[in-house]
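This part of the workshop introduces the protein records we will be handling. To make this concrete, we reproduce a full record directly below:
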Amino acid sequence: MDNLLQYLINLSIFIPIIIIMIVVSIKVSRANLENLSIYKYTKVIDRTSLNKDTNVFVLKIGDEGCVIVSSSSSIEKIKDLSSEEVKVIEERNNRKNLKVNNFKLNKIKLKKSNVKGENNGDTK
């Protein structure tokens, strides 16, 4: 009986400690992985799907870049890009992302104003 009681006490003490250690280690490793991705030498600037199995990638490798076609059976390098061409593509993507984000924000604002308008109309 003493052994069982001692076992249960040890179990109730050490299991929460182990769970806390697992959670902390996951949070620390996730933060480290995010920091590592900031300093990558290669970066996928753009990806376009041509069909189910074929994709076109624009990669930035250092200052220069390249265009790659990837299918389920092969990968081929189509073109090398200069640093100026890579900058132009990155700027175009940044502008496109800004437009999409602004559109989403405007859509959210419209929904909120519609909800407020409906609430004001219901209080008659």
Summary: The chain has a mean pLDDT of 81.
